[in-house]
User: Fold histidine kinase from Urochloa decumbens.
Amino acid sequence: MGVGGEAAAADAAAVSAPAAEEAGKDGAEGWLVQVRLNKYVVLSWVLFAALVWALLHRYFRNAVISKAEEGLVSMCEERARMLQDQFAVSVNHVHALAILVATFHYEKHPPALDQDTFADYTARTSFERPLLSGVAYAQRVVHADRESFERQQGWIIKTMKHEPSPVQDEYAPVIYSQETISYIEGLDMMSGEEDRENILRSRASGKAVLTRPFRLMSNHLGVVLTFPVYRDDLRPDAKVEDRVAATAGYLGGAFDVESLVENLLRQLAGNQELVVNVYDITNKSNPLVMYGSEVPLGNPSPSHTSTLDFGDPYRKHHMICRYRNKPHVPWSAVSTPSGVFVIFMLVGYIIFAAWSRYDNVKEDCRKMEELKKQAEAADVAKSQFLATVSHEIRTPMNGVLGMLDMLLDTDLKSTQRDYAQTAQVCGKALISLINEVLDRAKIEAGKLDLESVPFDLRSILDDVISLFSSKSRDKGIELAVYVSERVPEILLGDPGRFRQIITNLVGNSVKFTERGHIFVQVHLADHSNLATEAKVEPVANGMNGHKDETTAVATGVSRNTLSGFEAADSRNNWENFKLLLSYEKNEMPYESVSDKVTLVVSVEDTGIGIPLDAQGKVFTPFMQADSSTSRTYGGTGIGLSISKCLVEIMGGQINFVSRPHVGSTFTFTAVLQKCDKSAISDSKPVMLHPLPSNFKGLSALLVDRRPVRATVTKYHLQRLGISSEVVATIESALGVLSGRNGHSLASMKLPCMLLIESDSWSSRMDVSLRSRLLEVKQNGHTPVLPKIILLAAAESDKLKANYAVDSVITKPLKASTLAACLFQALGITQTQPSQEKRDSSGSLRGLLLGKNILVVDDNKVNLRVAAGTLKKFGAKVECVDSGKDALALLQIPYKFDLCLMDIQMPEMDGFEATRHIRAMEAKVNEQADAGDDSEADGATRAAKWHLPVLAMTADVIQATHEECTKCGMDGYVTKPFEEKQLFQAVQKFLDPGMSS
Assistant:
């Protein structure tokens, strides 16, 4: 047994030995791999550090070279500037000498200057011209005067070769010369080709001109300077012909360029470091050396070229400077990279320290996650806070406005009614402000969703016009709206938000306009672009094309606009408007093939405008143009900000053109969808305002001298089916009626009404117009006199009493008001019953009459308001103040047709109460289905037990609306609710024609 054990142990050892050996080998190989890896990492790190050292060394070396180049540029430019200045000084002395010759030789009779005087003077003043080897004066002599000139001088004109000068148009013989160059006296300077060219260039330009460089007698390089001498003073802008005619002669001298440059370089420090060359580069392909060696330096070094301007407009020169020796590399280019190399060797320790901070970073990340969750919770709390604040503010405001509304239905004295109406207006203004602030909060939170329901755009604009009609009449301003015929009658979108944008823009215009007009236009985007793209106003400085407010002040000149006042946007004129009208008449097809329609809406006013320095912050929330504006006109400055956000949500853009003291024009686009009347479903009813059809086939004659305003009036008449013709004066209207002056009624039916704008009516027209109309009737031109209707912005009763007219229509015009006035003026009986207006109070009374309604609200005042409003329309109302009391009354079978329930109540809120109601209905309906063998009858029972529950909420947060839907509510009405909103909410539940 022992032997067996030893054998087993030996076998085990034999088996384990290779395993241990393999494990040791693996460990050794792993250690070797790690060592090799460390070697590679260290080697890579050293190589990387060496690469950094090389890059830094190159960087510092390049920096030194760059600094040397900057110094070279500075020194070269300085020398070039000084060389030009010294040359200019010499030229000025030559100029002074030319003035001397002109003064004492030509202005004195006889001349006070001769050769001896000139030679003596130039010899004494030669120290002023150290770089000129000598000066001489050559007189201009034409061939006709040559004989008399030679006779006077006592010698003949010779060429440069001392031969008699051949016959030519003119000569330039030297008559005065400095003693050093007296040998050129009598020589014709125009006999030399280059000298002749210099003479012609100098007298044509009036400036000193230079020749090409050549060797002087001193063996230095130099040039000949030629300066014209004129008999008369010439203007700086004199023509070449005038200069040639006024030329008396030419003053010239040999200029030593090498001496000039040598003296300059001798005066400056650092010349031993620089090598300077000056070239004449008039011929760039063959530059001429004026100073310096033509042999290039052996060691390449940085160079710089400076342009030289010696005053000669025909010749070009430049200076090239370079270092004599290459710049030395500083010690810092070696020490600094070496220090960085040492630092890199210590980075390993920094990496170790950074790794030790890794855990701390992870902890920080965890804390950041917690802070993120807190921030998200704070955002939710903010939304809840807004909902709560909205409810807490709007709930008492509901009571205030409701009680005021009920108070106004009682018998009040005029003073009491005025007080109550004022309080009601202030309360509605406060509600509007709350809505704007909450809209802004919803926009920032990204929770503002748009509805998609059919609506009538023209009816919305009529409502907005009605809203501001009183203010516009009080201010005496024209308020009008025009919608293109090509805009569809029914559109699909959010009518409330579209109305909010228009109301904000028109409200601002009414607020800031004291004279003139406010004009709202709606066109299709394609047609509007075609009419305006060629007339875009140029923008000079990025802000409406005006540099300051003084240039933007209106000149007072009347424009062909709605009111005759100038508009801020030059594109809004009668020509463009007429072009848009032509597109409508030609029935140009809309280019969009999709079901979307892009509208262009513009609101034009002639108000105070926006200051130029404030136009950049117009759309900033809670910002006014300036503090004085907010004090004078009031407002919070949030309306335009919300309008901009709403326009962008609708897929459009908004911009404006404004000129101080002229007005503003705001233009925005909106993308909506087409909608046919046949496609309107019961689930999305559209609130139509049908216009009466009694006027179709009638015609009218309109007297208006302003074509834009006349077009607006024709638009409203056309909506009623009335065709019209426009004339500018009453005389023209009488001519149309009588057929005189080429006028004819063949294109239209006999007009039954004569519409006259108030500014076309004079105080002496009353009797004469009536008598002339009677005369037209007696002559047989018209069997029936048309009704005379005056269009005015004042009170109609007062105007009708003062003017001999049949009726007065008060502006601003809208289709419904125009129809009502024409019914009365023409004596037409209205065939359409008023009950067809679905959003009137009569329709609401028809829905609520005899209905049992349960109102649940914990606020006693709100209960009284809701009960009073509902009872006013014939409903039977029962009120409770808690959700539990409501559940006690709401037992199946129901005795109520509708339940209006507040959502925020103690003990049991509206959400919980509604969930209990729906659970109770579901249980009863399931029992009815289980106990009924008829499937159809069971479906009927299931549909029967469903009480319409509408939330009465002061919250306007999207989350509240979603919660109402989730708990089983059928809809909601916001507090304080209005009649139209209440009608829309209860119509689909209480209207027999729409109920299931």
